[in-house]
Amino acid sequence: GAGKRVLDVTVSGLLLLLLSPVLLTCATVLRMVGGPGVLFRQERIGQDGRPFTLLKFRTHRPADEHESATRWSVADEHRMPWFCRFLRRTSLDELLQLWNVFRGDMSLVGPRPERPFFVAQFSQTYPGYAARHRAPAGITGLAQISGLRGDTSIEDRARFDNAYIDDWSLWQDVCILLRTAVALVRPTGS
Q: Do 99 and 17 touch, CB atoms closer than 8 A?
């Protein structure tokens, strides 16, 4: 509701302001290490199945648009420059999504948005997957703080996402954000 949007705009705006030196540094080093094109833009599906352009720092270069849209994981960490590996391991490459939140494409907390190709695939395969799109997509969520990141069960993620949406409260969002912050400060190598 309105409270969620106020929380999103306030927190993302504040973080973008506070983290601007970090974002600028990441962009500069990335430009020096990997050449031009520090931004990675990708179409993702948000609330009510609406597509939007997700922003990240570019840590790898997919062979082409098709690979980027249809391959589950394009990142081969061994072939990445050290700085790109660092950005991924620390989740710093995800920080630009604060701009997506500020703009209203996403929320701080919600189901992770997926690419159209996979949304179509998963919606047919997993009951409850499409129902995740009742809520705004998020940078972090109940599934993520419960250890369901990266290559984990889509079915489990959909279950956690739907449980989050069913029991939504502003307090739950705050708790998930705090748990995410703690996990980022103390990375467990995940």
A: no
Can you read off the two tokens belonging to residue 14? Answer: 């504040």
Enumerate the domain spans of the chain.
2-185
- Please identify which residue in the block is written with the tokens 């179409």: 43
**Residues contacting 174, CB < 8 A, separation 6+:** 7
pTM of this prediction? 0.87
Residue-wise pLDDT for 30-74, tens only, equals 899 878 888 989 999 999 999 999 999 988 765 556 666 556 565
Token pair of 69, please? 């849209």
Quote the CA–CA distance of 177 and 132 in Å, as a whole number. Answer: 19
Could you identify the residue written with the tokens 């106020």? 6
Output the DSSP codes for 88-118.
HHTTGGGTTHHHHHHHTSSEEESPPPB-HHH
Handedness of CA 58, 61, 64, 69 (dihedral sign): negative
